[in-house]
Design a protein that fits this description.
heterotrimer; A mainly alpha; B mainly alpha; C mainly alpha; B: 2 domains; 8 helices; C: mainly alpha; 44% helix; disordered C terminus
Chain lengths: 501, 226, 73
Amino acid sequence: MNSQSSPSLRQALTPSDNDSSPERKALLAEIDASCRRPVLFMFANGLLWLMAGTALALLTSYKMHSPNFLADWSWLTFGRVRPAHLNTMVYGFASQVAIGVAIWLMCRLGRVPFMQGGLVVGATIFWNIGVTVGIVGILAGDSTSIEWLEMPGYAAYILFIAYALIAIWAIIAFRFRRERHLYVSQWYLLAALFWFPWLYSAANMMLVIDPVRGTVQGAVNWWFAHNVLGLWFTPIGLAAIYYFIPKVIGRPIHSYFLSTLGFWSLALFYNWAGIHHLIGGPMPAWLITVSVVASMMMIIPVVTVAINHHMTMVGHFKKLKYSPTLRFIVFGAMSYTVVSLQGSSMAIRSLNEVTHFTHYTIAHAHLGVYAFFTMVMFGSMYYIVPRLALREWPSARLISIHFWTTALGILLYVVPLSVGGVLQGLAMNNPDIPFLKTVELTKPYLVTRTFAGILMTVGHTVFAVNFVWILARRRKAYQPPVPFIAAGLQQEAGAQLGKDI
Amino acid sequence: MNPPSNPPPAPKLDPHEDHELHDVMQIHTAILRREKAEPQEGLEPMPIWLAALFGALLLWGGYYLGRYNGGFKALVFDEKSSGLPIMAAKPPGSVDMVVLGKRTYTAMCAPCHQETGLGLPGQFPPLAGSDWVNTAGHARLVRIVLNGLTGPMEVNGQPFNNSMPPWRDSITDEQVAAVLTYVRQSWGNKAPGVPIDDVKVIRDKTKERANQPWTADLLKATPESE
Amino acid sequence: MLIYIIILAGSFVFLTGSALLALRWALRTGQLRDSRRTALLVFDEDEPVGRMTDYFPGRPLPPTDPASPSISK
């Protein structure tokens, strides 16, 4: 083919890889075909849960400033709707899509097809049964009332088994990879695949199945709730960013050395954080101090990752205009820097005394899970889905709407709510202000949040429409979008597609 | 996946990438140039300011951990405490008498004498401003608390005829002293407090009475000082 | 109580141990050595350095993009 006219850098550097044989070309097609069913199935289910979680979120947000709304029916009281929203988003949407993205990246980077896609589809069904049981359990009043682990114990078993059945195949794909050399994304993915079951089983063991007593529960709870963000969502989000920024703009990452340092320092420090949520509580002082120090030490991985992501983008910002994936991913990468540095500062005792137990913490959590992680997942899906469905996204306009509504929506969510949270914290620390006043003070910010939620709901709906559309669409009668099957056979098809549609 | 009829034209490289390596020649040159440590993608070394930042963070972390560790003791909740003298500084037993007294009063006495110490007219005599409470000695009051009081009596000129149960077996000497100190120093009462030791002495002295309540006349016959 | 101490201590040893083993494996097999090659792993001859790989469908492409010429096909 054109390898003579345009030898790639990689070919030149590693002559042993210099085969552009048809088998090699077919490999990408084979990988994508092997991922098609399980990964698209996970994405589809994830989006269903996203829509359900969005509805619950709107309901929760509305109840915050109009508490009488739908308060007569116990299934829809605030105390049930809020944990239902959280668990839907965390286990139904975010984790499921994260596993899908992780599987695809694992196969792509290991240059190995995914094995036993059918089995994994079965395990995914099992996972979704677990989520459904858990959410219905919460709404029916069976919540454990332990934050991030509200799902009743019987749902936790299902989720854990389903997870094991899925993750094992991602790890097997890693084990039999053909490219022996590891890219930084694989470090993150592999670690996350092991960290999550450890966190989830340890926390469930110690809190739900055979609960520990007293304040130890608080410590375990916050260790889990904090680490599931840092050791499950964060590594998968970072793995996706490390893959997609270089891949989309066509430029290697700024410094591979820094990326290695970032991974190992995250692994070293993150697990110690979490207990700083209990500052002021009946916790041994040293435990909290260790957590505060670990949170501050997180600046090391965050700064290395930030330098790497943003320096790679320098000089390429024009490309944001042309790539949907890049928009979402870069938005997520920037949010990661902001949310992490903010998080470190929130562990400092004097700041924590003001901001904790206020809406500031809620805003921070959404900055992390939504502005960083969810946006990165959206970006990844925009890249992966057309390559698996062998069709191009039907509507660029819907993609634009999705980006702008969610990006502006989350900003409108986070910024006012953070301001409101600080004011609320200062008011609550002032003994002269009655508690009810501090509640009334937050009302305008809560109403703003509902409007932000409506914006994001529009974005999610539009994305769901586009997703259903791309799957339901007939394949083109003309040459199918070849580049996504076997990119080597027709190099320019990405652009060609754009033209033809 | 049909092979294209015409091989696609060789891709031109993105002008944005001009500074990047894009052909073999340049790679070789670059390998030679690497002696000069020219910055390359993927090879960017750690900037010196970053190393300095990390060093500073580690120093701060060490300091903070050393300063606020509470002696790594499980029962030290105040990060500013060194954790060492905390147990010795406040031996168990040195409780605030007024706090303990108020707590005891609320639990044991307030149902009849009321939280306000005013009692209920005609039923339960008042403690606030009472001529039985605001006395120089306290032996009589200790006796009443330990053994109770029954039959007619007069408080501030008002007649009462009711029965107060004995508390001898329900509360400790410390609690008796605390509750009487509280009663004698609240609601405008300004009598001296009651030491624990005095309660102990009277408890011994009145052992024979067991749980038999006093009458007002019997108490009046006992000297205030004993 | 004792069982938890054993579980916690055990998982601590296990996790630290596996991290150290992973690090040793990475050092031995040269995973951390050739950072140039590693940084280029996301590319191949079909999607080489210098090529964008994601576009809005149906929108005008960047004027200088390498993919543009083939549109005329």
